[in-house]
Amino acid sequence: MSKIIASAAINGAHKILNMSENYWKQAMDKYGGKQEVGFPETAYYLPIIYSILGLPVKNLSDMEKIFKICRRIIPEPVYRDYHLPYLGPTLDAGMVTLFAEEMYEAIKYLNEPDFYWPEEDPTEEKFWLGAANDIILRKRGIEFVDGTAPGFAAIAGSAPDEKTAAKIAQELQEKNLYVFMCASHNGERFSEQLKKANVQIGWPVRLVPFGPDIYEAVFALGFAARAAMSFGGIEPGDYRRILIYNKDRIFAFVLALGYVDEQWYANAAGAINFGFPTIADTNIPQILPTGVCTYEHVVSGIGYEQIVAKAVEVRGLKVAVNKINIPVSFGPAFEGERIRKEEVYIEADGSKTSCFEWTTSRSLNEIEDGKVEIVGPDLDTIPEGSQIPIGMLVEVAGREMQEEFEPILERQLHDCLNYINGVMHIGQRDIVWIRIGKKAREKGFLLKHIGVAIHGKYHSSFSNILDKVQVTIYTDKEKMKDIIEKARKVWQARDERLAGMTDEEVDTFYSCLLCQSFAPNHVCVVTPERTGLCGAVSWLDCKASNRINPEGPNQPIKKGNAIDAKYGKWEGCNAFVKKASRGTVESVSVYSLIVDPMTTCGCCECIAAVLPLCNGVMTVNRDYKGETPCGMKFSTLAGTVGGGKQIPGFLGHAKFNITQPKFLLAEGGLQRLVWMPKMLKEEIMERFKKRAEDMGIPDLLDRIADETIGTTEEEILPFLQEKKHPALNMDPIM
Amino acid sequence: MATEQNQVKTKNNFDLVWDRLEKQQPQCKFGQLGLCCRFCAMGPCTISPVGSGGKRQYGVCGADADTIAARHFVRMTAAGSSAHSGHGRSVAEALIKIAKNQAPGYQIKDEYKLIKLCKIFGIEIANKKIEELALELGEKALAEFGKQEDKLTFLKMAPLKRQIIWEKYKVAPRGVDREISEAIERTVMGTDQEYKHLMKAATKCSLADGWGGSMIATELQDIIFGTPQPLVGKVNLGVLDENYVNIVVHGHEPLLSEMLAIVVDMPEFVNKAKQKGAKGINLGGICCTANEILMRHGIPILGNFLNQEMAITTGAIEIMTVDIQCIMQSLPMVASCFHTKIITTSPKAKLPGATHMEFTEENALEKAKEIVHMAIENFDNRKKEKVSIPKQEVSLVAGFSHETISYILGGRFRASYRPLNDNIINGKIRGVAGVVGCNNPKITAEENHLILVKELIKNDVLVLQTGCSAIATAKAGLMDPVIALDYCGPGLREVCEAVGIPPVIHLGSCVDNSRILMAATAMVKEGGLGDDISELPAAGAAPEWMNEKAITIGQYFVASGVFTVFGVTWPTLGSKNLTKYLFEEIANELGGNWAFESDPVKMAKLMLDHIDEKRKKLGIDKARERVLYDMAMRRELE
Question: What is the span of the domain harbouring residue A299?
Fold first, then answer.
């Protein structure tokens, strides 16, 4: 009966609030009210409190107000007889719990600054990862947006044994879900069980140990709250929309493994506010009627064999699982898997020996679908620890197949290989680097299974254009020589063709609405000279994707009459954007960051911003954590421009876009760029230099400031003057 | 209860309501059928009942059975509407006086609701003080009564489709008083004599109550006294305590009783009572005044309409104050056998044999003190040998409003009707029923209420209640969130357990039927159950009605799209045409219709059939497959 849950949750909320308040009082004595608090490298302050109440907690004294609100909201315990309605109060108690925990954790960061490890992977010494920083949030957020991660499982407690833990984790990974772990049961923790079972843990493999206690469940819900603000563009304080956004769009749930105490119940109640139900292995009372969550609220007594399937069903989630017939798991959750040196069974390194991967089209009668041929020895005859050459020739055929889709298909090979549990793939073309792990080999994995995976994934992703896929895998160096040569010629031709394409020569652009699952009003316009702002979607990709899935997120946009060629405004483009943004964006300049700039979902690789004093523009990539001359770090910038809002003076864009000729065309082009982080300069140096030469300013990159020169406009201006940066002599930017 | 009443009678040797009913037998058949007209001096005329083949088919003026029955019906709605509207008007006047600081002791308790209502009435909020807003709102609300043109402000709260229906059939009321006045005008001899056309007057006049007078009463009372929040209360005569000075409030308006509630807790009066040998002062209520102070303070309820005389026969009541509506003239007579004093307080209503202490907002606090003082003084006069308090006392959870339902279902951050709608859609809850109205001595021991409500909840129908009907089921334990679950069907039980509510929800007094309209509207607006109240799987009933007010309430429910069943008797049965119109044809226009059924089990069946029909039309009559969402479906979301 849910009265038991309500009583327990409300009691738990009182306990957590008392604990947190005491902790705060001690901190006030120790540090004083002015002491700043927050989760490192994150925007949105304490994100649940900020998103729900709209109140930024910047220092310890700000918490006083929040505690007062908690005291006002927290309901009385449930009467034993003649109880009053308790569902509403229980949900309130859950929210108070999250507020209290968020403040508790913020103070913990203060008291024990080294407790959490702020990176993607735990180390031998540092196991708990704490609040995801904004780089992780954005990077992982994209996966939530494009659907490679449909949601997350917040696991509290532990499985009965390590084996079961590993099995549940793997099952969740196979369903592409993130797994956020906290709390203990019987002195065991799920995350530690995985570690003991030798399962790789960390953000890259979607198994995230947030912390040892139940309080760290707040990081999972904080992640959800931040997603609603950054991708959903929902204003902090608009609590109803924040929560409904999560209910409708973030398919998360709680797996309670082990004894559910009052504090667990309190956290579960908090999660229900977000529409996240709890599925328990123990026989706690159930709450089956629907309404706050999409379906049931609490389902209990579920065996370990069924618990993942049940959770997915209760949450109302449809997971598209690739059924690939190989002896190991396959899915995007394994994309970030690393194979360490001591775990390597064999390695193929393109920088040391001959390696290649090449997808090419053939006519239908030339190839046989599903045929996988190994030219040379397979793993069963190659000794452990070998360095081998490897070549993958993927031949495809289909009535709808076109030569220009080849690069797109070829790029998919990265996923095809990396999704295999036990295979690591880096690089492309003739510089691929592949490692296959011992564990995979133990399970019977052979090289021919790579072919099976490619065949399966190609068919599931490109069924509309492909009819046949044939894979030949070479491990005989001599026999692949000719093929590499042929491939190299093709690659060169492709590059030349791609580089030459201009916006003028096409009459159709493409939309990318992939992110509308998260940012419902955002519309990306992808043109030959403007790659999608996430850096992952080119015009050709869109074209192919539209061919593959005509109803999908990439829709053709007929340019129509030009309104302004310099600003990149077209009638057809505006009409499309207005409709697709549900009326929120009326007009878009594809080439401007000042007049009607394109919106961003929050997935952008870089954000450019006007620097008025320098008469120029800066841009910053999301991997750069430091300050920038516009006064905001990337995370703050992303919080400002994300969520499908049009904000003049700011533009989300891809790294690749910087060297595309139409970049900032309306503002005068690339010569407006006055600052970017050093790491970004280095990353795009080659392309940048070529572009600068074409523009007739070959030393442009050297005249652009970076953080070593300064991180304020005042600091960089003398440098720009000294270097005679062209922006200084251009028309006023504002 | 009948046996209790007999005991009382033997002991005291005077008549109570049931005795008087007996002595009235046989009651006038023409009157029962609506076929007696004494509106002019050419009459009184009676029409031979349908099918009797009698020669009297027309009144002297030429009016036929349809016209005569319709005129009666219209006048009943006008009477009912005037009663509730009188109540609403008093509240609006009180709000104005409070705003002007002329009503010591009163205050604005729900500022949030004040602002919400100001927005509805188009009052600019700006930086105005609460008192300024209250004054403007009070004046605007008061003007609703005298408005001559346009239409009532609250009509725009209804679902859009409903508003269009009202416009289409030209039944949207202009001002409250105007519609009441016109209704009576049209029934004057020789005026409106086309029964369907007369019914338009009944509809307008009753809508002017539900979406006018009553709604103004409810909403403005919430501003002054606070919007009810769930609380635990007690009901039945056992709430009287022989060790206390007992004061009972009876009638309908909470204005004075709210003041009494404050005064009885004042230490000076408690001490005075103690000096008299009492342990303190016990305040209780009867009828809708009781419902009002139960909802906001948890003050116990002695009983409903039929319990008013019996309450006095306990010999333990020092003072009973009465204001308006449903007060039996016999009270002073019964009281004369005991030490109980009956005090009339409304300028509108006096009783022979009662003490009149007229109450106004200006003197409310002083009057309340006087009354409490009198009660304490009267404690000395209580005769111990005459005190006999029945032990029965039941707890209930009350204090629901359409706003709190929303909170209860989702907390403050997710407040909505979604869980209710969802569970109706998924079939755990089959539908919603409003069971309201009086109790009637023609029915033994309130069994129509109890049988009907039990039948409904057994069939997974959530029951919303007000008025004396609510008190009847509360006495039977149906508002106890634990005990009542045993009467529920499995689906309803599961939802009640999840939310922590009883299956029978107490929404307040009879003006608070407007809360049911608002709750129904909220369900429509939440989505998934059609675009109008008439599409909801819902029905209404007044199984033991007696007051004309019930006819008005029923008519405004019908005119808001609700299928409404009445029990006991039906006032138009003498006119085949009018009855057919009210029971069937009116649904083609307004979406709701009436029914009459004296057997409560069959009444439940009618309501369930209606609910099932609506479920079928909504396409929620069959179990649906669980929808699992993929990314493409999420992208489609607005």
Answer: 2-315
